[in-house]
Amino acid sequence: MTITRRNFLSASAALAMAPVLGRPAWGAPLPREADIVVIGAGAAGVAAARRITAASRKVIVVEAASQVGGRCITDSSTFDVPFDRGARWIHNPETNPMIRLGRAAGLEIMPAPSGQKIRIGRRNARPSETEDFLAALVKANRAIDDAARRFDVSCGSVMPKELGDWAGTADFVLGASFAGKDLKDISVVDKVRAQDRNSAIACRQGLGTLIAKLSEQVPVSLSTPASRIEWSARDAGVQTPAGRIAARAVIVTVSSNALASGGIKFAPDIPKRTLDAAARLGLGSYDHIALQMPGNPLGLARDDILIEQSTSTRTALLYANMGSSSLCSIDIGGSFGRDLSAQGEAAMIAFAIEWLTKLFGSDLAKAVTKSSATRWNASPYVQGAMSVAPPGAQPLRKVLNEPVGPIYFAGEATHETLWGTVDGAWESGERAAEAALRRIGALREEPVKQAPSVKRRQQGGPPRAGLPGMSAS
Ligand SMILES: Cc1cc2nc3c(=O)[nH]c(=O)nc-3n(C[C@H](O)[C@H](O)[C@H](O)COP(=O)(O)OP(=O)(O)OC[C@H]3O[C@@H](n4cnc5c(N)ncnc54)[C@H](O)[C@@H]3O)c2cc1C
Hints:
Helix content is 30%, strand content 16%. It has 473 residues and is α/β, with parallel strands linked by helices.
């Protein structure tokens, strides 16, 4: 049974696909001064730097890693097709700026995968069973919506009893697969405030390739971790191993976990509430396990997406035969994904083969010719997948967004409705750049005209829990 009209894919923001284009490092010596320094060359940092460049102000991006992209990294060399190690899907094509930017950059935007299947043991779910599951998702979302109107508790604590055999699957689809945490660890208010994430669309060359291409117009100094920000009411200085950069404003785009872990020192200290907000808005766990399996041993169609009926958190999502290739991605997340990734790449690959063998019957170990697994929690400059709030912490996104003197914060965790997404990170970077430009007098004081995409998002009515494309009918 293929789920089309009402689909579970749209319930998951964290579904994941390409390499780094080999972007040359900033060849020139690190400048000693800039109008604005941007820390981090992920989606938020690249967006901020492009906005500052467009305003004809001097910007430098310092990036700790040896490549741009942050959580958008495409591996184009290991497999036959580009493999996105971080973000893969572009949601909400009518408002998502990444679609327009991708096309303008000459990259190919693919249609959303249409095949979504549910496995029950070794067979596909019957149509009536699929309907039951979709009904369970509606009930679960409704319970989350209802609860969020009254108080903020965990999504897990309000799950209706009548989800029956589908309780575990609903938890995976709405929790681990959506945000990298189990429902018991997710605030109903944060979930309800999350904007719909429908129509998962990918970029054929990879979303990481897209961010790398977009960064070509801005100066990025790679392998340059910011270690300390010295600031006053007037200006700031950013310390790096390559020297100090004096600036009139700084935009910090590092992940909430990287900020909370204290990798960047502030002198004087920034308010404790900012660091506490970052710590509370910690990152969930989400990883891709890539298996190249020539000959289509699973017998699935191109770009098929598959989940299983599961009674435990020990489950995964399969994205099969990516772009007609023999590459399959098995995605894990939440508490199970966190524990498994801590055991290392070999354990992750072993789980993926065992899980597929359980669902498809034949021993698949021999079918795998190449494999690779991401481990975002162990990535020193990111330390996780995406930020999701526990009960009570949703308002802290606003706190994390508050500037401290000449220091502005951006990144997916600072976005109140698009947290956990690339477009949320992008928009937050543009917003921070505009605020910093206003501060240094490069933009007029009144609020800048919003981009049409931002306006449309806000006119769309109150955000609701993430099951776009899924009507009750
Ligand atoms: C496996 C996975 C799948 C995902 N799937 C999707 C998806 O399908 N669709 C979607 O929209 N989103 C998805 N996401 C979420 C998305 O990737 C993120 O929301 C987004 O990329 C975050 O961008 P950012 O700029 O806020 O942060 P980051 O990408 O983390 O960028 C921050 C940058 O700061 C750098 N940095 C850290 N410390 C320092 C320092 N001291 N000095 C200098 N630089 C530093 C880091 O190296 C990094 O490059 C996924 C994430 C993961 C991990």
